[in-house]
Amino acid sequence: MTETRTVTVEREIPFPPEKIWRALTQPHLIQEWLMKNDFQPVVGHRFDFRADWGSVDCKVLEVEPHKSLAYSWDAMGLESTVTWTLTPTRTGTHLRMEQTGFRPDQQRAYRGAHYGWAQMFAALEQLLARTD
Amino acid sequence: MPDAPDLLFRTLADPTRRAIFERLCRDGEQTVGALTAGAGISQPAVSKHLGILKQAGLVHDRPAGRQTHYSARADALVPLTDWASQMTGFWESRFDALEDLLRRMDQ
């Protein structure tokens, strides 16, 4: 049994797909908006994203220049896949990011054990939102 | 970072420590002295708790003269929040950064 979660973020971007593709696939550019990395646009290439809070283990799954890009995204006990889709529009590009995660049973058990904590953190989050 | 939630749980399991953290969340940046006044424990004890909170990334310290000011770091709780809202917020902010980069990039 696994539990699937999907997050989708979409935006109209006033730049052509070719330019966005560069920002999605060139390590020094990726670093500027996402994280430090050793990405290569080659299917099967293993790489990681590194931040001061930790790292994300990845593997390139799909590369279709200027159209779509997918890599696995494993971090904090969660295995997921990030897929980028670029669709040209009259004014630029419709950029879509979909992240689908699979939470292993183990993780659910862990969360169950910490149910009380989860409630406490929900309260804390509300507190933080108010103090922002 | 598989043990990050464990560290946060352990750090906030202590009620005194949690109270200090919640107070920083609620009232904003404060000195050790100000925190001690409301904590009902000694200043060295408050400092020790702040050190542990800092190790877990839950507080930030800002030295100013002889005083050190402490503040809560909301982003430290990210590993514990709901995955979907956590990742949506993460990617929304990354999209902002990407657009910003695209505006700066040469054609």
Q: Can you summarize the main beta sheet of chain A?
A: 7 strands, antiparallel
Shape of chain A: globular
The Cα radius of gyration of chain B reads 17 Å
Mean pLDDT across all amino acids of chain B: 84
CATH superfamily of chain B: Winged helix-like DNA-binding domain superfamily/Winged helix DNA-binding domain
Number of E-state strands of chain B: 3
The top-level CATH class of chain B is: Mainly Alpha
Low-confidence stretches of chain A: 105-124
Radius of gyration of chain A: 17 Å
Number of domains of chain A: 1
* CATH homologous superfamily descriptor of chain A: START domain
Integer average pLDDT of chain A: 80
The main β sheet of chain B shows up as: 3 strands, antiparallel
First CA to last CA of chain B: what distance?
37 Å
Question: Which range does the strand content of chain B fall in?
Answer: 5-15%
In the CATH hierarchy, the architecture of chain A is 2-Layer Sandwich
Per DSSP E runs of 2 or more residues, the count of β-strands of chain A stands at 7
**Which percent bin holds the helix content of chain A?**
25-40%
Biggest interface pair, residues each?
A: A-B, 38 and 34 residues
The ordered H/E elements of chain A are EHHEEEEEEHH
